Amino acid sequence: MSWHKDRRPERGYHHGNLKEALLQAALGLIAEKGPAGFTFADAARSAGVSAAAPYRHFRDRDDLLASIAQRGFEQFEATLTAAWDDGRPDTVSAFERVGKAYLAFARNEPAFYSAMFESGIPVDLNPTLMAASERAFGIIRAAAERLAALTPPGVTRPPALMMALHIWSLAHGVASLFGRGDAARRKLPMSPEDLLEAGVLIYLRGLGFPTERKAPAPETVAEERPAGPWGKAPK
Amino acid sequence: MSWHKDRRPERGYHHGNLKEALLQAALGLIAEKGPAGFTFADAARSAGVSAAAPYRHFRDRDDLLASIAQRGFEQFEATLTAAWDDGRPDTVSAFERVGKAYLAFARNEPAFYSAMFESGIPVDLNPTLMAASERAFGIIRAAAERLAALTPPGVTRPPALMMALHIWSLAHGVASLFGRGDAARRKLPMSPEDLLEAGVLIYLRGLGFPTERKAPAPETVAEERPAGPWGKAPK
DNA sequence: TGTACATCAGTGAACGCGCGTTCACTGATGTAC
DNA sequence: TGTACATCAGTGAACGCGCGTTCACTGATGTAC
Predict the structure, then answer these.
(1) Spatial separation of the C-alpha atoms in residues A81 and A141, rounded to whole Å
(2) How far apart are alpha carbons A203 and A222 in whole angstroms?
(3) Is the CB of A10 under 7 A from strand C?
(4) What mean pLDDT, rounded, does chain B reach?
């Protein structure tokens, strides 16, 4: 309905910020068709530019994909950091919040998520990307370390790193099997959020932590009775 | 070194069992390059046949992929069934064995596994495929049901279906993040097997099950001290 | 048992298509003086 | 402030390539009689 196309009616010969536009375009295409289903030419077309233009900014398709993953890991890290909030108000509930944030990210940013974890780019061969990935995982790991320091005495537990990997794996499993609405995900009689939350709670209980939403005291362990957070799930 | 190429030296005009050969060829290509990285033409070439030949047996690439997934689910079901062994010698250890078998399948049959879970074919739109998938998951579910019936009194637990989904998610998460050697998987300072096993044990402990390899008695809960199964992991 | 014929399962040539990539080019922008 | 010039960031034409798909075909196989 606007007479000017976009406040900058004629783009003119120079685009202005093509690199950014290409990233956005690719992100949109990935969200639509998955990381396999987008091509370099696609991205150019979608950014309204000739097929040769992207070469000014990216070496090739993989380079573009890596940039997206890079940015994804950075946003992921920020999201997890915010959720963790340095363990406030208490370690256990902050930890659960991290799990939820993980899932929310996968759900809200499917394009980033699949670029990061499902696109097949070799993360460990790209130092910058690897570092970004490590920083994001570092949040989960730091949280696990705090949790580890708090496990009730007398409870055997694995190294903090392993705890972090358990949570990561569980969250990733839920996210990739049930998390996204895109096309082929399996249907569930419960929400992925509930599924993950319940799983994390049971896991925490296995580490000797109290699991009720309103934990009586940080030290009380594992003997509650009532419905619990999975009460809402169908029988 | 054999003078006859394969006991049936000249294939002749008719292949004999092209459908099977195409499936095998595709399986090999998927294992090599991932489910995205194989084409219909590729499969034909790899089976030593013209590019038009596959059309006699499959409608298109997706049809071929679906056949592979179908077969994969069937083998998966068989593997899990064998591992579960109807809960012998006891439910808990049989349950753990199912987890291991899951991971072993993902590791040993990466092509099947990725066709089943990572190829993007819409499982729920294909009734036959869906049924096969359900049958495979049914094993995990049945195991979870047996487990649920056995949870110690007084321990809150989720529905058996949810327990099954937790294990599935955890196993899938470990498998897809760390499980396969193909290209871009992340390195770990522990084996995926150990990671999954420890995770399952903690989860089971969270359900009130004893977790030591040699459980003293079905009722004793969560108070052991020694190294445990994750003792072997690096600090 | 032999023959004629239908059916089956491949061939190979051909097509259109879109992708990746290169190239000489040119319009726009920034800057030295 | 104005001008000349270098640099930058696009264009568009062109190419080779492999894929998917169709088609008339033909060699091989099975079967009715």
Answers:
(1) 11
(2) 11
(3) no
(4) 86
d(CA A140, CA A105): 14
Q: What is the pTM of this model?
A: 0.88
Query: Which of B162, B174, B220 should we substitute to test contact with A (largest number of A Cβ atoms within 10 Å)?
Result: B162
Nearest nucleotide by C1' from B55 CA?
Answer: D21
Tokens standing for residue A169: 């794996």
pLDDT higher than threshold 90 for residue B174: yes
Q: Is it the case that residue B67 has pLDDT exceeding 50? A: yes
Distance CA B174, CA B192 (A): 6
* CB-closest option in B154, B159, B169 to A233: B159
pLDDT above 70: residue A3: no
pLDDT tens, B82-130?
A: 999 999 999 999 999 999 999 999 999 999 999 999 998 889 899 999 9
- Helix B18-33 with B61-84: angle, nearest 10 deg: 80
- Reported as a single tens digit per residue, the pLDDT across A30-78 is 999 889 888 999 999 999 999 999 999 999 999 999 999 999 999 999 9
- Best probe of the B interface among A119, A161, A162, A167, by most B CBs < 10 A, is A162
State pLDDT tens for residues A91-120: 999 999 999 999 999 999 999 999 999 998
From the number of C-beta atoms within 10 Å of its C-beta (0-12, 13-18, 19+), residue B149 rates as: exposed
Chain C bases closer than 7 A to any CB of the protein = 9-14, 18-24, 26-29
Q: How far is CA A87 from CA A96, A134, A138, A216, in A?
A: 10, 20, 14, 18
Which stretches of chain B are DSSP H helices? 18-33, 40-46, 61-84, 91-108, 110-117, 127-150, 160-174, 192-206
Whether the beta carbon of A14 falls within 7 A of nucleic chain D: the reply is yes
What mean pLDDT comes out for the span A174-189? 79
> Which domains are seen in chain A, by residue range?
1-58 (1.10.10), 66-235 (1.10.357.10)
- Per the structure, the residues numbered 55 to 84 in protein chain A that have their CB within 7 angstroms of any atom of strand D are 56-57
The C-alpha atoms of residue B34 and residue B119 are separated, in whole angstroms, by 8
pLDDT digits (tens, 9 = 90+) for A136-170: 999 999 999 999 999 999 889 999 999 999 999 99
Q: Using an 8 Å CB-CB cutoff, list chain A residues near B166.
A: 170, 195, 198-199, 202
Q: Closest by alpha carbon to B140, among A69, A173, A228? A: A173
Q: Is nucleic acid strand D under 7 Å from B158's C-beta?
A: no
Interchain contact, A174 vs B173, CB within 8 Å: yes
Contact B170 A165 (CB under 8 A): no
